[in-house]
Structure formats: structure tokens, C-alpha cells
Amino acid sequence: MELSQLADGLVRIDRHDGTFLGIATYIPTNRFAVTKLTGMKRSHGTIVFEDELRTWHIHGFTQHTEQLYLYGDYVEGHTLSEVLQYSADGFLPYLSRLTRAVNTLTASEQPTPVLHSRSIVFLDDGGVLFLPPDLVDAMTGFQAPADRRQFYEVYHHPDLDAEHNLSYAVAVLAFQSLSGQVPFDDTEEEELTERMRSGLVANPRYIVPEIIEAVGDTLRGSLADPEGKLPTLEGWADTFQSWIQHGTHREISDEERARLFEEAEAQQRGMERTYRRREHIRRNWRRYVGITLVAVLIGTIPATILYRSFEPRETAGYTPAQVVEAFYYGMNELDHEIMADATVEGAGDTETREVTTMFVVSRMRTAVEMSSSLIDARDWYADGKPPIEEGRQVYGVADLRLEALRPPAEAEHAFRVTYDKWYPTGMDRESGGEGILVGFERVDRVYLKQSRGDWVIYQIDRLEDRTMERRRTDGTLIEEPAASSEP
């Protein structure tokens, strides 16, 4: 028997009884694995060529230099994991072909394919080869954890059925090709699945700033909310054809690149903070139930005080500037907990109470309508303040700028904080009862000191508070003389 390398993970096998394609299984060549695989009921792969299905006959397994190969009818091509290394422009045609092939396969009476980047081969004649699902599952079970995570787990959402998971996997592949990294990753399988469930995924524009905004938004939305925004396989096929035709990248200025990287850093901090908080609650919910019961029995100690006495501050380890950013951007994320952690002695209580109210209202509305009505002011600015969908409102801080000041004797750090604040108000009679958005230009002086080893804000002085504009929810401007307040 002679083996010669064809492509990454693929070999040509010449034997006395013919020539075959060998596919590396990437599993240890131990006796148990070989016995298990060779003892399985023989099933065959499927080649999708345009709308035609062909059988790819599997002839068996063979070992060579400590590698176990599955071999079958001789064809030539490249594995999915190899073409993933191509540039985005080079990979998109393959992804479009894969999506059409998967759609053809799922529309037939064939078993639903399993997406494993080492079990799909793009053939040189235009076909796509899929190994049988039961064999892929068996191979995956024997692979090393790192290989299983890289080739399989990163493409499979734990809560989606097989067909929807294919569409999800396609979204992950597109994200991976455009950004150079998978949207969710972790060294532990449990952590990886929880990150997928969290939906906390970066916009690929924040990884590669040249990615067109609509492209990045489509991918982020699909992965953040797969049960609500994930396109069908047919939808993906149309999307990829459009991206191939119109492109996925554009040239940007150095200023825009710097802005996107700054936004990316802030978003990443926010996502990690939110994820850590959720994970802490998920892992310690029994403990919190006990705390709540104790609080009910005692009756005089608020449960929230007991909760927080067991937890470190969310801002532990933050620099003074990061604490200030966490407080102000906590408004956008309706994160009243981090705002409370960032402050002491009543500083920012008005803003924290406001965010707590907005959080409760938003959760109530989400429970009824299954969607949030609020738009992050930063995202709205980044999009150029477009018209706002009916029933939605802009809230939070945008254009946040910090200037370090010389602190007074009693403070250890001080900042001049300039920002825009947007808030939804009541109804506008002249516009037929539509909601109004009010934007304020504000300047605060913020003082920080250390408390229990952490930097905290202990005083906020408002220096300026000017109404800069009022808008209806369709984005149109309502002219109004600006009012200012400068203590």
C-alpha cells in the first residue's frame, strides 16, 4: 500500500485492489477506537453535485504512521477546514456552495448532515462530499478534546435542533472566515456552550474594521439571537451571493479605525463583565436561594445587601478611568449593579435609580413582546443616528470623553467627563402622540478614592447640562431653543 498527500487531511491510497481517497480521522489509533469504528454498520457518504445526489462508497479504515484513515472511492478535493484558511473572498464561494449543498441534502430523504470541518470535502469537480452522520458522531467521540472543540463543537449551539444548527454553523463559518476567529471559544466544553447561550458576541467589524457594517450586523445578530434572527439556509445562500457580488470589505480612514477599536475595547469589557455576572449567578443560584430565605426569615435585612456582601465588586481591579467608564456606560447596558459597585456615599444615586427603573420597564416589555425596545446610544451614534423603528427608543451615553484633572487634597483622582445623554420622554401632542427623544450635552466633574482596595466614585458634580436637541422616534428633529445650566 502506498500513500501520497493530496491536501490537508486527504491522501491518495494505492493498493492492489485499486486507488482510494483517504480521509484522516484525527483519532488515536488505539485498538478500542479501531474496533468500534470498523465494527459499525457500514454506511456510505453522499456527494451533492448541483441538485444531484451520489453515493460515495466507504471501503474501510487503514492505519499509517500512527494515523487512522477512512478510505473510499477515489475523488480529489479539499476539506472544509483547509478552505477556511483562505481569504474571505476566496472562502465565500466555497461557503455558498456548501450552503446550497446542505440545503439540497436536507430537502431530500437523506439523514441530516453533521457539520464537522474535517468530514466535509469540496471536490475539484464542483461537488461536496459529506460523510455519514453516524460515522461523524463516532469519530468525533474519539477525537482529542482540542480537536473536537476546533473541528466540531464551535459550530454547534447546545439548544438548537439539527436543522437549525446547520444554519447556525454556517453563520459561525462566515464569522470565522471574515474575522479570522470563531465567535465563541473556550478551553472547556461547558464554558463554550454557556458562552454560546449568552449570545454575547463581538461585531466582526470590531475585529476587522474594514468589514462592511451591514455584513457585520447580520453576523452578530444571527449569533447573538439564533432563535430570532438566524436566516434559513436559503436565506444564507442569497446573502452569500450578494456578498460575493458586492464585497464584504471597504476602505476606512485611520480615524474610523481608531474609533472602532475604541468601541471594540469598551464592548469587550462590557460583554465579559456581563458574562461573568451571569456565570456567577448560574453557578451560585442555590447559595442565593438560601440567602433569600434567610433574608425573608430575618425580615429586616434587604436581600440585595446580603447578596452583595458575598460578592467582590464588579469593578474590582479597574483603573480609575475604567471605573468612570463603567459607571457611565452602565446606563447603556441597564447595569445598575455595576453602577452601584462603581460608586459610594450616594454618588450617582439619581442615575442608578433611573437605570434601575429603565431595567425593570425594559424587562417587563421584553417579557410581553419578546424583544427589547431600547437602543444603545453608542450604537445609534455609530450608525449615524438613523430613523428609529416604531416602538423603540434610544437610551444611554454616547461620545464619552475623559480628561484627567488635578485632584483636590481629599481626592486621589479626578476627571472632567463630557458626554451626550439620550433619554426617552413622554408623548408629543403635535406629532400625534409619538414618543420624544431628548439629547443632553453634559459635563461632570468626578472624584474617586479607594475603598476596600478598589477605586470608587464618591462625588459627581454636574458642571453643564444643556438640552441639545429633541427628536421624534422617527428621527426627525424638533426645533427648540437650547436651555443650559452652568452652576
Biggest sheet: strand arrangement: 11-12-13-14-15-16
How is the biggest beta sheet arranged?
A: 6 strands, mixed
Roughly what percent helix? 40-55%
Number of strands: 16
Q: Hey, roughly how much beta strand do the residues contain?
A: 25-35%
Structural class: alpha+beta
Number of helices: 17
Distance linking N and C termini: 88 Å
As a whole number of angstroms, the C-alpha radius of gyration is 28 Å
Shape: elongated
Oligomer: single chain
* Mean pLDDT across residues: 82
Low-confidence stretches: 294-303, 366-371, 427-434, 481-487
Describe it:
- By secondary structure, this protein is an alpha+beta fold.
- The protein has 17 helices and 16 strands.
- A six-stranded mixed beta sheet has the order 11-12-13-14-15-16. Strands 1-2-3-7-6 form a five-stranded antiparallel beta sheet, covered by helices on one side. Strands 5-4-10-9-8 form a five-stranded antiparallel beta sheet.
- Strand 15 (454-472) and strand 16 (477-478) form a beta hairpin.
- Helix 3 packs antiparallel against helix 6, helix 3 (88-107) runs antiparallel to helix 10 (233-246) and helix 6 (162-179) packs antiparallel against helix 8 (213-224).
